[in-house]
Design a protein that fits this description.
Elements lengths: L42 H15 L1
Length: about 60
């Protein structure tokens, strides 16, 4: 079995500084420039959809 946790955070400013022992890549994307997202039914997809909805409603 496995457990996935998800987090949201607010971005203020500055450059990305990923830990490349944990990530192979990190980039910022605007809503219209996003690459394909995770499959429906995943926690990643739910977070992305909620975040996009929040951004577009502002």
């Amino acid at each position: 079995s496995s457990m996935m946790m998800a987090f949201l955070a607010d971005y203020d400013s500055g450059e990305l500084n990923p830990d490349y022992t944990e990530l192979s890549d990190a980039q910022w994307f605007g809503v219209k420039e996003m690459p394909p997202v995770a499959p429906t039914g995943t926690i990643a997809r739910a977070l992305i959809e909620q975040t996009v909805s929040d951004i577009l409603s502002d």
